[in-house]
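From the methods appendix. Each design record in this collection lists the tokenized structure first, followed by the designed amino acid sequence. Records were kept in a plain field format so they could be parsed without special tools. The example shown here is representative of the layout used throughout.

RECORD:
FOLD TOKENS (272 positions):
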């Protein structure tokens, strides 16, 4: 049985049926074909994320978490199924620059300063900062890098580089932020600190976030909802609503409710 902090959700609504839904997938399947045959990366995956929500994708390697993000971002076409992003086709959201993406590798340009890296989306592809979006310097301050605007990537720690990457992803004012294990390569203390800071950024911007992680503790701490995926092929094992209080700080991990939630997620993962 799930605890009060972890409640299994009902089936999501059909794509596009609710203007309050940021992302809706219905029976999304992705198959890759190579010389050895066909591989099913995702098998009839359905999910629904409301605008302004925070969903974490949790599961073992090979369960299609990153593939799902790329389908939502219009980087990979689904083989079958339907999906909508911000009430329209994913390609529309991508062309409107409504989607920001943060990868595990910050992928900063080494010859540009932190501020210049954040400004990059505004300089390429006709990018523009939409009304209400924060200025690059303001974003760097929001992620804790005031005074580091002129630093180059080699002068920054791994955690600081990821802060720059987050600021860069937000500079165009996207409505949806996709994050693919952005803190996976960092030490535990830095990762915990960035978890807290990310929740502050989310609260400040109201951006919808989909966050991929291998860590059940990170998934539980960050999310309003956790989507647990099983592997080979990638499929939904369970959807869990997180009822922990907000705003959250790391001390919540010491509560009985968090321990019960983490235990529930672990038991589900062990069965994947």
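DESIGN:
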């Amino acid at each position: 049985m799930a605890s009060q902090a972890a409640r299994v959700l009902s089936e999501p609504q059909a794509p596009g049926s609710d203007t309050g839904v940021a992302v809706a997938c219905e029976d999304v399947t992705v198959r890759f074909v190579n010389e050895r045959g066909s591989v099913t990366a995702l098998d009839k995956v359905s999910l629904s994320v409301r605008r302004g929500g925070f969903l974490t994708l949790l599961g073992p390697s090979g369960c299609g978490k990153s593939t799902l993000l790329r389908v939502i971002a219009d980087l990979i076409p689904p083989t079958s199924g339907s999906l909508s992003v911000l009430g329209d086709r994913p390609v529309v959201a991508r062309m409107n620059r409504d989607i920001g993406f943060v990868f595990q590798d910050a992928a900063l340009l080494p010859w540009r300063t932190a501020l210049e890296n954040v400004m990059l989306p505004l300089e390429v592809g006709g990018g523009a900062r939409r009304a209400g979006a924060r200025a690059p310097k303001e974003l760097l301050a929001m992620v804790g890098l005031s005074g580091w605007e002129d630093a180059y990537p080699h002068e920054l720690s791994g955690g600081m580089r990821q802060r720059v990457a987050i600021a860069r992803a937000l500079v165009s004012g996207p409505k949806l932020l996709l994050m693919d294990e952005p803190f996976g390569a960092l030490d535990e203390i830095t990762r915990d600190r960035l978890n807290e800071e990310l929740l502050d950024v989310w609260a400040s911007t109201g951006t919808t976030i989909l966050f991929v992680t291998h860590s059940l503790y990170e998934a539980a701490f960050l999310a309003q909802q956790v989507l647990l995926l099983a592997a080979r092929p990638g499929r939904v094992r369970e959807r869990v609503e997180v009822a922990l209080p907000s705003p959250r700080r790391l001390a919540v991990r010491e509560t009985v409710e968090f321990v019960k939630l983490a235990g529930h997620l672990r038991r589900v993962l062990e069965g994947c």
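APPENDIX NOTE: The beta strands are 6-8, 21-34, 37-50, 54-58, 80-85, 99-102, 176-180, 208-213, 225-230, 235-242.
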